[in-house]
Amino acid sequence: MHVLAIGEPYDRSIQKWPEGCHYNFDASGHWLHYLFIHPSKIEISSIQQGAVRFGLYVHGPVIFLLHQFGDLFWNDAPYSWWRVPAEHRRLPEVSGGVHALVKTVLVDTSSGLVAALRVLTFSAEFTRRLHEAILLQTQSPWDPAQHDQVIREVYSRFSTEDLVHRAEILCKGGD
To answer: What contacts 36, CB < 8 A, 6 or more positions away?
Structure first.
């Protein structure tokens, strides 16, 4: 089992890091990765201890997890259950009262080292709505071209702030 620690490599097998923010839900739960080259002190402190807000925007077959940590701008990360390798997929639990954990990792892409770590919860209502959206995805046929087209369409029409204003639900991290 690989243990994550600040100042340690995130994954030695990764040679090239995709810059940006990436959300994933798989058998190990909810993960949010910030992949920044030489993260600043503000970026590190925002991830580690800043106030956190989450939002959920769904457009067709694509789920966008919206997130803001501390002094950072709102970010978004598109998600599809179908993009998770089959051996790592699991169906989320949908029930009232569950506060799902989301593990957040900031990786310095210049070195591959973990720069910040944080574990929070989504609110119970946010968890339920997100899990329902994921389950709905699993019941629709998978069309990678359509998925990519929807992402391009959303990004051509809306900024991340626009998506926040269109979010079906918002919550504070830790609720």
So the answer is: 19, 43, 106, 107, 108, 109, 115
Helices (H) and strands (E) in the chain, counts: 4, 8
- Determine the Cα–Cα distance for residues 135 and 89; give it in Å rounded to an integer: 12
> Where are the chain's structural domains?
20-172
DSSP state of 12: T
Residue 76, number of CB atoms within 10 A of its CB: 23
CA separation for the pair 167, 88 (Å, rounded): 28
pTM of the complete model: 0.94
Burial (CB count <10 Å: 0-12, 13-18, 19+), residue 86: exposed
CA distance 172 to 126: 10
Cα(first)–Cα(last) distance of the chain, in Å? Answer: 29
Tokens of 110: 């210049």
Alpha-carbon distance 105 to 21, whole Å? 10
Q: Give residue-wise pLDDT tens across range 104-146.
A: 999 999 999 999 999 999 999 999 999 999 999 999 999 999 9
Q: Is the separation of the CB atoms in 66 and 164 below 8 Å? A: yes
Give the whole-angstrom CA distance, residue 9 versus residue 137: 33
